TrEMBL record:
Belongs to the binding-protein-dependent transport system permease family. FecCD subfamily. It comes from the Bacteria. Signal peptide: none annotated. It is found in: Cell membrane. Residues 1-10 have a biased composition (Low complexity). This is Iron chelate uptake ABC transporter family permease subunit.
Length: 366
């Protein structure tokens, strides 16, 4: 007796793809998945609550409701002065710094097609540290130091980051920018900047070295509206340009040949992406010091939450702002002693970097 086998379909049904919803805004069109909308909106809502909670913590506690009322102009008594003049600048600088670093990290990682690409590993934040430490340590001891000291620490850090970014771009450029070469040259620049910073600190007076160490750990302490205003203007100018370049960036991640086939001027697009990321990092670091690992960790968190194929720019920026504001709140309220926010981000980011390295090695050996 024989048993007939069940009939097999001649062809398997095609897999279901998450197409998302089509949209068109003028000349721009595409498909948007619901998670790419929900994650930024939810992240912004949590960011507002975290910022209000942070502004209410201090020697004179203020409830979250009173903080929100003060922010819309309904504050009473000393609350407007305490919140708007004393506490809000610190939170605003932290949010803007996290926003700029998150977007810059998404730009670098998408362009290089490498989750290890970030301003930290590419040497840009270290270049800012060289400029700031030189301004602190060498002011008054040499003509160059006097010039840097006259600029001030934020402008010297901005100059150091921009010079490092230009060097990174110039040394990487070979009729275009290759992501693999970008990472290798960035690591070399980071090593050179680390050595130069160590040399400056070794030859510095003890008080100057202590001041420099506080800055290079990344801190939001004693930030004022004078620190927030230049960074806010820079973000207001650079963020729309970055979002406008998102479509070109999505094409660049598939390789130069594919991008050329789709009509993209690869050399100009690559230059624009790298320079936008460098400027965002330069202004962020000049305002608060090198708050490390934000640009490395946040884009990978954002891409997993949104379920996309590359780090989303807007979600990365909002989550970066949330990370910095929350980390600063934790350092001021949950720890026995207040610490620079850069220490806490490094504590969370360093294990993640090790995990990325171990995962990459395992994939390479399979």
């Amino acid at each position: 007796m024989s048993v007939d086998a069940p009939a097999r379909p001649t062809s398997a049904p095609p897999p279901r793809l998450r197409q998302g919803r089509a949209f068109r805004a003028g000349p721009v069109s595409g498909r948007l998945h619901w998670r790419q909308v929900v994650v930024p909106v939810a992240g912004f809502a949590v960011l507002v609550l975290a910022a209000a909670l942070s502004m209410g913590r201090g020697d004179f506690p203020i409830g979250v409701g009173d903080v929100l009322r003060t922010l819309v102009g309904l504050g009473e008594g000393p609350q407007p002065f305490i919140i708007l003049e004393l506490r809000a600048p610190r939170v605003v600088v932290g949010a803007l710094v996290g926003l700029a670093l998150g977007v810059a990290g998404a730009l670098f990682q998408t362009f290089a097609r490498n989750p290890l690409a970030s301003p930290d590993t590419l040497g840009i934040t270290m270049g800012a540290s060289v400029g700031a430490v030189a301004a602190i340590v060498l002011s008054g001891s040499s003509s160059t130091g006097a010039i840097l000291g006259g600029l001030g620490v934020p402008l010297a850090a901005l100059l150091g980051a921009l010079v490092t970014g230009v060097l990174l771009f110039a040394l990487t450029w070979r009729a275009g920018v290759d992501g693999y070469r970008l990472v290798l040259i960035g690591i070399a620049l980071w090593s050179a900047g680390t050595a130069l910073t160590d040399w400056l600190l070794t030859n510095a007076e003890i008080y100057d070295a202590a001041s420099a160490y506080v800055w290079i750990t990344g801190s939001l302490n004693a930030r004022t509206w004078e620190n927030a205003l230049p960074l806010g203007v820079a973000v207001a100018v650079l963020l729309p340009l970055t979002l406008a370049a998102g479509r070109v960036l999505a094409v660049l991640q598939f390789g130069d040949d594919t991008a050329r086939g789709l009509g993209v001027r690869v050399a100009g697009a690559q230059a624009a992406v790298v320079l936008l990321a460098v400027f965002l990092v330069a202004f962020a670091v000049s305002a608060a010091g090198p708050i490390t690992f934000v640009a490395l960790v946040v884009p990978q968190i954002a891409v997993r939450l949104t379920g996309g194929s590359r780090p989303p720019l807007l979600a990365s920026g909002i989550l970066g702002a949330l990370l910095v504001v929350t980390a600063d709140l934790i350092t001021r309220t949950a720890l026995p002693q207040a610490l620079p926010v850069g220490i806490l981000t490094a504590v969370f980011g360093a294990p993640y970097l090790l995990w990325l390295l171990v995962r990459g090695r395992r994939r390479a050996t399979l």
